[in-house]
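re: that chain from earlier
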Amino acid sequence: MKFRNLICSICCTIIVISNLGCKKILDEKSDQQLVIPTTLVDFQALLDNSGFLNNQDLISAEISADDYYITDTDLAALTNDYQRRMYNWQKDFLFAPRSNEWATTYRAVYYSSTVLEGLDESDLPHNTQFNNIKGQALVFRSKCFLQALGLWGKAYGNANDTDPGIPLRPSTNFNEESYRTTVKEGYEKVVSDLQAAIQLLPDKQVQTTRPSKAAAYGLLARTYLFMGNYTQAAKFADSCLKLHPTLIDYNTLSASDRYPFTSFNNETVFATWIPPATIVNSSRGKIVPELIASYQANDLRKGLYFLQTGSFYYFKGTYFQPALFFGIASDEMYLTLAECQIRSGLVDLGMETLNKLLVKRFKTGTFVPLAASDTETALKIVLAERRKELVMRGIRWMDIKRLNAEGRNIVLSRTINGTIYTLQPNDKRYALPIPEDVISLTGMQQNDR
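^ sequence. v structure.
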């Protein structure tokens, strides 16, 4: 009963914050009688609420990306006009008011900050359990900030010292007004919090819904990759793999299964996920032909990742069935490490790292190790494999942003009722608009459109 009251009290506060966009509230006093967490068991229970912390990743990153399309008939049948507008990169009104990804992101931030503040203000002994819980909260909050930066901020490589990022909400006090820090300040916060978490967390947890040291390493590698700091990204991808090197041999799986991969499988380092949005679900979102055509004959991923119905292919290869897995897994770390090694001039080593992954993806006895004689050729290979491996993992949108920031010139295109819509490299629309109700309530700066 105590924990139920605790959750209800925090949920009520979160609802207020979400509905008011964290705007300063006057003439309201907090109820001092609300149950608050006081023990380590209480704090851990808050972080074990996977419905708020693990199950709220940002599906808009996949809706906006280029690995799928839908037919004109399916698009017309959509009842969600916000997703329809997001699909062809409209400039505004991409999010429903109140109940949207901004609200769920900052609800999770509030949960994490509640734990961090509660621990810091408590007289609890700073033992291993205390450190573990604090480290988990730092990772959860960092995950939220990183995803939010990827959606609502410019690519790090395109951002100057004043480009707005996201509110970092350092306090749970909802009387404090929200303001947008810069993109670079946001990434610096993610890095510093993850580095702090690494010092506190155990190598692995009892379950992968709880972030571990390996998870913090992996999320830090992803962060540095998005920042273009390839030396640091390689360092932390390698650190993650030292703790969690396991790869699934895809020869042990059945392509005839509706969902070939089990949830919490052996590659999972940190499990976070999101139910697929209507527009990208496995009965509507069709994989683009050029991605399907990129898989070789004996590449098992084609049969394990996609369900073929007539001439159409639908995604089924999630690591968290039937939701989409956006968490950290060892395959991503091999790809990150390989890319960074290649970018650092270690072409042979990078290709060796990539081949460690790919040999587990091809039919036994058919894989021919890939080789490249120069950096650019190797980089094109590893980037192509990254796209083929990490389908519907919430990463493609940020990959496009970071690669276009360095001049890769990826142009997105959709054809709707005979009209071609394009998104040019480094277009302002790569930073999605903050929900209009949040702007109205807080007065925060909207993204340029």
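The chain is about 45% helix and 5% strand.
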